[in-house]
Write a structure and sequence with these properties.
Length: about 350
């Protein structure tokens, strides 16, 4: 599809880069989005929070901000709060939903509260002693997954099948966060479901030669396969897509989101996490799913900024929460603090 230049251009700030561990991926997303929006006739300026202080920006010169910041500051609600306070419309979820999604433990508590299947887990801290870790491992059992509580792109994630693999997995996890999760391993297939404004895009089955869809499989391997026409009954695929939607409703996400799942041998989908700012190049998963529905990349970017600007008058600029059935659940944050205190006293 050829994208025509818009007769109603906007002034758009594309936020990309930052200083998180996913900076390089964010810069690629930002460049792709900048090119796409420019091709639609918009006036686009790239702002890198690692270089430009966001609180010092004169936001009145822009109509909307496209947030392409992956990881810390972009997906944890910080930049969203700054934009809210400036009255600046922006793409993606608000600060509340972003904070919930960025903490895997907080998100899991919401999933369980709303009946969305997610693997069993327990929270760990880098100060936990060997006995405490052993007790927590016993709660989950092998095989299990060790992952940072707040991180993306599968950084610091390991599958642990026996005790001798655990120390290295813990070291990898705690390089990225002081808190981590021990999560029950779901043997099965990997899937992802993209959403735009709560409309599900076609589910993608991910096939990799790696043990799971890790950083190398995402960004380095050439043999990773993304399958739309998987040899799976349509009813199962629809259940996967419906589960992705239910997960987003549980957290109250808006605009863009991508839900990562595993599907077991009984065809039960299990939600692992929600990415509120998924990768955004024309090779990324959500744009691939949109293209499957006939939405090319420039059209997708244009639709996203127009939708969020049109909705801004009803929520962000007026400062009203759009979480009618969700209030930020601080129980997990309290548990994190409690665990840290307990760990420090042992």
């Amino acid at each position: 599809m050829h994208t025509k230049k818009s007769s109603n251009s906007m002034r758009i700030a594309v936020l990309a880069g930052g200083d998180s561990d996913e900076r390089a991926v964010s810069l690629k997303s930002g460049l792709a989005v900048t090119d796409a929006l420019s091709s639609c006739g918009h006036r686009v300026l790239h702002l890198d929070p690692a270089i430009v202080e966001m609180t010092g920006v004169d936001w009145s010169q822009f109509d909307v901000a496209f947030v392409a910041l992956h990881g810390r500051f972009g997906e944890d609600g910080q930049v969203q709060q700054i934009l809210d306070e400036a009255g600046m419309p922006y793409t993606g979820s608000d600060a509340v939903a972003s904070r919930l999604a960025f903490s895997k433990s907080a998100a899991k508590e919401r999933f369980m509260h709303f009946g969305v299947a997610t693997p069993r887990y327990t929270l760990i801290h880098y100060n936990d002693d060997t006995d405490r870790i052993s007790r927590k491992v016993a709660e989950i059992g092998y095989p299990l997954v060790v992952k940072p509580d707040t991180q993306g792109s599968s950084l610091g994630v390991s599958i642990v099948r026996d005790p001798c693999q655990l120390p290295a997995a813990l070291r990898s996890c705690f390089q990225f966060d002081g808190f981590g999760l021990l999560e029950a391993m779901i043997d099965g297939t990997e899937w992802t479901v993209g959403l735009i404004d709560r409309q599900t895009l076609p589910a993608i089955k991910i096939e990799t030669s790696r043990e799971f869809y890790n950083w190398q499989a995402k960004y380095e391997d050439n043999d990773t396969q993304y399958v739309f026409d998987a040899d799976v009954p349509r009813s199962i695929v629809e259940n996967i897509e419906r589960t992705g939607l239910n997960a987003c409703e549980a957290l109250g996400t808006k605009g863009l989101a991508r839900v990562d799942l595993r599907v077991d041998a009984n065809h039960q989908p299990w939600v692992l996490e929600i990415n509120t700012i998924p990768g955004f190049t024309n090779h990324s998963l959500l744009p691939k799913a949109a293209a499957r529905q006939g939405i090319d990349f420039p059209t997708l970017c244009d639709r996203i900024v127009r939708t969020c600007r049109n909705k801004s008058g009803n929520d962000r600029i007026q400062g009203h929460s759009q979480h009618p059935h969700i209030h930020f659940d601080r129980s997990v944050m309290a548990r994190r603090a409690e665990d840290a205190t307990s760990a420090g006293s042992t």
